[in-house]
Amino acid sequence: MSDETVLTINHLTHKFGGLQALTDINVDLKKGEIAGLIGPNGAGKTTVFNLVSGFYVPTEGDILFKGNRINGLKPHVIASMQIGRTFQNIRLWSDMTVLENICISQQYRLGYNVADAFFNTKRYKSEEKKIHDEAWALLEKFNLADKALDYPRNLPYGVQRRVEIARALSLNPELLMLDEPAAGLSTSDLSELISYIRWIHETFGLTIWMIEHQMQVIMTLCDYIQVVNFGKEIARGTPDEIQNDQNVIKAYLGNGEID
Amino acid sequence: MLSYLVQNIFNALQWGSFYSMIALGYCLVYGVLRLINFAHGDIFMTSCYIAFFVIAGLTAHFAGLTGIPLFVITLVITMALTALLGVGIERVAYRPLREKGANRLYVVITALMIGFILENGNLALLGASSRRFPDILPKIIWKLGPVTVTNLKLLVIISAFVVFAVLQFIVQKTTLGMAMRAISYDKFAIPLMGIPVNTVITFTFALGSALAAIAGILFGMSYPVMDPYMGMIIGWKAFIAAVVGGIGDIRGAFVGGFMLGIIEILVTAFLPSSYKDLISFVILLVILTLKPTGFFGVARSTKI
Amino acid sequence: MKNKSKKFIVPAITAAVMVLVVILAQLDILNNYYQTILMTICINVIMSSSLNVVNGYMGEFSCGHGGFMAVGAYVSSVLSLVLFCPGNSITGKALLPPESAMFLFPVVILLGGAASMVVSLLVAIPSFKTRDDYLAIVTIATNFIITTSLNNIGIVGESRGLMGMKSTLSRMSGVIDLPWILIWGMLFAALTVYAIHRLMKSTLGQGISAVRYDEISAEIMSVNTNKMKLIAFTFSSGLAGVAGGLFAHMLGFINPSSFGIMKSTESLVMVYLGGMGSLSGSVLSAFIFTILLELLRPAQIFKWVIIPLMLILIMQFRPEGIMGPRELPQVFPKLRKLFPVNSDMVRKNQTGGEA
């Protein structure tokens, strides 16, 4: 873990019409960190991700990636700046093979245009080869090479999740945002997921930012956690600090007395 | 000059009334099903022909039937038959797709095709020669200064307002109306609340088609030349009106219809009449690009 | 059979068929009637497969294909009349000598296509922000705008239409006596299919399909969805324009009413009949549709009741069309022998094997 900052969010506030979704969110992700973003449902976590991804333009505040302000940039531009992201639901392209899913995600480095495609030029051929080679290499690294020509809908859920994360990695990201990677997984799959994320972190040297509800995953993996509720940050710190924070406990469990 | 203006305003109001009434029909169905019933304009055309034959049948059997009684009976029968047509189309063509959970796209295509079948079926069965809608109400002309107003013109305009008022009442104040509005928000949860979705949808189509029938009869009386394609262009214009006003909101459809009527009369006052259609469609395109939800419409956003 | 030489099988077969057709036409075994049908098939192949790019691969609902056909038809006709036809209704004199028609005809057709591409921006740009029903309306409105505009332009005869394009064809035949319109029709149809195949096979083109399956995750995965939509719409409309030009010259006479919603509906029927996203499906359905229309000719106006009915039935019982989203080699595996193996689909250290 270095001191170099990858993602900085300053005073992020966002309104959807009259609805205040986020108020004064501040984030400071260091290179190589695994950071967590947790909070009750509807707290605004996915909204933060969506703002960073570029789906909305923040009402107020700045989002800086490696020092560059990315407010208002289109999602595909932000993706090409090497920020990868997954979603709560698996959003693989269903009628395309796993290999095709990985190839298409490399559009940002497409070095040819439509004319090249028509005329089957040298440039087209070499670019396509590069993309395919990259895709195969990635699949082999992930041990998914034997599934390359399968369709995602025919694969077990856990494998689909792996494919989705692999696809996000085809962007060669420096920052990987995972939105509830454990969603839908059974308890037995969780430890596999934890080692999987650890392995990605070590192999690719990424900064990982995770939204998650499964406390086991968060507490085990994260160096650092932020808690939001009703669009505001209510706590931040190491997993130990968070587990013992009164505000966090209140937010999740309410004010009732526990005997 | 002023009399010319006032005369044209009445014309615009009459013309706009038709757009309004048909737009309201589109709006009802869209409001409930999120379906643009492209066949609606052709249902309007068909109702006009139905009225034609109803009148022919009635006057053949009841020689003494004329004037207002004839009008009222024709209206009721035509509304009933057209409602039946609308419901029939829903049952046979749209419902199976809805129940299969088919992509909305397929339903829209089906609607477009039903429109063509109505048009070309009419052409095939009844031939190409245009028919003339019979005069059933005696014409009473009032002169307000230099301006001429007929009872028919007034009837049309008043009908549009009455129809709107009745619809507003139904949609806002009755349980059925509430059910209609609810379905537009969440088709899946509604049956769980004990609302018979199919019944409500059937009612919506019946109501929308009956409205088209009112417009159809009045239109036939106002502009007696009938042809199988008369519904297509008017249907599209009414649809433009609904979108301009904000499809999904009946206030929008109502206001939109009159707005379009005024715009068209203005256009014909200053430009060759062949530009009328072009300008209407350009307006549609502009509005769809700049403010797709129209004047009254509310944007529905999707959660990412 | 060696993989590299497999690349030439399908083009060779296509070329052979085309040559055969021309010979039969010259010998008058294929008389004018059959030539017209074949020509119509070629035009329909172009219309159907080009619309499939937008409605099938990209999953949008464009109902205004007839309008873009109109633009191509009119632009290429005007150019053709002005350049090659003495006594034309526009300028009176032909600007170029008759021999040039032979070489410049394809250019004129392509220029018609280019004009359609420009006009298609009216639809492409709104498509960035709207989808589904609203986009459908935009496309239909554009169709109407095109036809009503043409109805108001005096030079091209307003609603009466434009004629005289056959003169271009006779000028071409005057130099070398061949059924030129048929030749160009077949060539353009083949090139269209080839171009679409190449585009949709490329990673660039697959971005277009990604928009259909999940636009949001496409954006996240660095696909510039607006660019995809732009490419799809302009490419598709340009091809419709090409079809329009061929159509105009085949008939020798065009008017705005031939390019309205009914024409657009024909293309819609073909796309959904063949199968969304299936190129072979579009080609197949173009054949079937054209022949069906011919067979139904005695039914006259009932034809236009049957066609919409067909589409309704397709929507009800087989919305995925004949081929579904699959291509011919997937349905008939034996046909795979005709196509070269896509080397990218095979692992580097695998020997042989098919994708």
Describe the structure.
Chain A is an alpha/beta fold and 259 residues long. Chain A has helices spanning 45-53, 75-80, 98-104, 114-119, 122-141, 157-169, 187-204, 215-221, 239-243, 246-253, and strands spanning 5-16, 19-30, 34-38, 60-65, 68-69, 83-85, 175-179, 207-211, 224-229, 232-237. In chain A, the strands form two sheets. Chain A has a six-stranded mixed β-sheet with strand order 6-7-8-3-9-10, with helices on both faces. Chain B is mainly alpha-helical. Chain B has one domain (19-231). Chain B contains ten helices and four strands, in the order ααααβββαααβααα. Chain B has a two-stranded antiparallel ribbon. Chain B has a two-stranded antiparallel ribbon with strand order 2-3. Chain C contains 16 helices and two strands. Chain C has a two-stranded antiparallel ribbon. In chain C, helix 4 (65-84) crosses helix 12. The longest helix of chain C is centred in the C-terminal third of the chain and has 27 residues, at 225-251. Chain C starts with a helix and ends in a 24-residue tail after the last helix. At the B-C interface, helix 3, helix 4, helix 8 and helix 10 of B face helix 6, helix 7, helix 13 and helix 15 of C.
Write the layout of secondary structure elements.
The complex is a heterotrimer of chains A (259), B (304) and C (355).
Chain A: E1 5-16, E2 19-30, E3 34-38, H1 45-53, E4 60-65, E5 68-69, H2 75-80, E6 83-85, H3 98-104, H4 114-119, H5 122-141, H6 157-169, E7 175-179, H7 187-204, E8 207-211, H8 215-221, E9 224-229, E10 232-237, H9 239-243, H10 246-253
Parallel strand pairs in A: 3-8, 3-9, 6-7, 7-8
Antiparallel strand pairs in A: 1-2, 1-4, 4-5, 9-10
Helix pairs in contact in A: 7-8
Chain B: H1 2-33, H2 40-61, H3 67-100, H4 104-126, E1 131-132, E2 141-144, E3 147-150, H5 151-173, H6 175-185, H7 197-222, E4 225-226, H8 230-245, H9 250-270, H10 275-290
Antiparallel strand pairs in B: 1-4, 2-3
Chain C: H1 3-6, H2 9-26, H3 32-57, H4 65-84, H5 99-119, H6 121-127, H7 132-151, E1 162-163, H8 166-175, H9 180-201, H10 203-213, H11 215-220, H12 225-251, E2 253-254, H13 261-274, H14 279-295, H15 303-317, H16 328-331
Antiparallel strand pairs in C: 1-2
Helix pairs in contact in C: 3-9, 3-12, 3-13, 3-14, 4-5, 4-7, 4-12, 5-8, 5-12, 6-7, 6-12, 9-10, 9-12, 10-12, 13-14, 13-15
